[in-house]
Amino acid sequence: MPPSETSKQLESVLHETRVFPPPPDFVARARMRAEDHARLTAEAARDNVGYWAARAREELHWFKPFTRVLDDSKAPNYRWFTDGELNASYNCIDVHLAQRGNKTAIVFESEPGDVRRLTYAELAAEVGRFANGLKALGVAPGDRVVIYMPMVPEAVVAIQACARIGATHSVVFGGFSAKSLRDRIEDAAARVVITADGGRRAGKLVDLKGATDEALAEGCGSIARVVVMKHAGNDVRMKAGRDAWWSDVVKGQSTECVPLPVPSEHPLFLLYTSGSTGKPKGIQHSTGGYLLHAKLTAQWIFDLRDDDVFWCTADVGWVTGHSYVAYGPLAAGATIVMYEGAPVHPDAGRFWSICQRHGVTIFYTAPTAIRALMKFGDEIPAQYDLSKIRLLGTVGEPINPEAWIWYHEVIGRKRCPIVDTWWQTETGAAMISPIPGAIPAKPGSCTKPIPGIDAAIVDEEGDEVTDPNRGGSLVIRKPWPSMLRTIWGDNQRYIDTYWARYGNRYYVAGDTAHRDADGYFWVMGRSDDVLKVSGHRLGTMEVESAFVAHPRVAEAAVVGRSHDIKGEAIFAYVVLRGARPTGTEAERLAVELRDFVGKELGAIAKPDDIRFADNLPKTRSGKIMRRLLRNIARGEEITADVSTLENPAILDQLRGKA
Ligand code: WTA
Q1: Which of 82, 343, 467, 513 has the fewest CB within 10 Å, making it most exposed?
Q2: Cα 127 to the chain's mean position, in Å?
Q3: Which of 323, 370, 395, 512 to probe ligand 1 with, by most ligand atoms within 8 A of CB?
């Protein structure tokens, strides 16, 4: 991010001086207090590798204990606990059966309002049957299985079943388009797709099977079978020999499926995410390291106790839904809530109504949802009994102090700590976050790294920035167990993207941040071409490629502009083949292109603004002047050097004035 943009944001957060210490009654019962935090941090500082080994032995059940902890012989491809063997599903389910078999694992609510509950014993049986069903379909350890499902318990069952038999899952968010699904299936060379007839969102049907058929209509030669769960009841076409109903797959199968011990480094999952270039990256996670951190952070950051009801609102299609729905809280033996539907359906009280009816005690969501619900006013949450909530969390993008304070006062009724958790698809689990009974919060800051994580801010040369008035690049200086292992099929890209910048010394997060005099981190946003639109991660190049797939588009440039609910919104500059449209023709085309991009990528990628120009501003070397485009999209003063512009008159067009 150019310095002018960062410093403006810096100025605003530097004025934030409010501090919220953990409430004494919370501390009294907290799993981790300030002294525990200090002790663990000191332990990790003395011997980071030994610290992680101790945690891995305490937290996970190993079928074969590891003797080697960190293998850095192929750095930056770090490997952890390499000679150990375990099973993620065993660690999330079986370990609880003796003591918590009858405890509710999942409370599910559909958008129309049906409620279903599964105990740990029932979850074990569902996972066992489906795992056996997958085996019967020929799924073998190491096979990639794509999961394209609505937010229903079966999505978690499918994830856990894959883990149980050593298949590597790749969940594709149900809001992604057929084309996005196809790209991900092909990149992973997946063997099976698990989907549903349809999903439900905002009163509408999401035609998942239709999209799957469309994806598989071209290419996707690796796919042998498609499993379809009946859920929304819409009509679907079943292709003989390829498609099977979920109910038929599990028919006659035993509920017992012996969990397969896999080496710790066995790829538990791939999750595709956006980067600076067009093609999404298959982020590859390991079994042992990933699960360790998912479980530890679920326990530490969410302070999970046996009587908690934990609701993370993220869809399983995103990393947050992996770590804090499908794995972390289950590994911790918690009760989780899953909701399939929109936050404002049928009205803006839906989230609070779910919290009240299911007695949610810990609520974790994205700042964009908080801002959206805040707009509806304080009267709506005031109608609900939120007295059971004791802890609140946020994730996915920076939270503005105003939304933080609203969350604290109106939802938390000033009683509940807030954990602002910074992390990424690549980091596997939360990295910088308050531990609620230990670390005082500051609105807008994700505070301090969790014990064992060595985060820092560095300048262009890689030297640590200690001046609280300066920003820099956020890096992690020591390997950690849940780090991504590679980019599926492209290890060079892994090295180039995350390590090359500082000679393989640090993991480069791609965020700009600064650290205040108390050592608190304030993350400003991405320093690359990644956007966070309503907390969803999108690459500008992906959106640009979607635009140019339209026959009328010659060229497109996409930037982010700030948006008071979405955080960031997509602003596109488009050059058409032929004359630049104006007036109603421009409006009509903008609508057409907006829908086209939505169809290509998924509704979340629809641009908010489209502006037509005769050409795009480029430097002499032909590079698009993105900074200029950002300035204009954000209504800022132009800080870019425009003296080299080939056609300065273009500025008025870009501003929408000509
Ligand atoms: C941003 C989501 C500020 C950041 C778990 C990061 C945040 C990107 C926060 C990763 C936070 C996530 N404060 N920014 N608490 N959490 N981010 O892969 O820019 O979807 O690099 O993972 O989200 O997005 P991803």
Answers
A1: 467
A2: 24
A3: 395
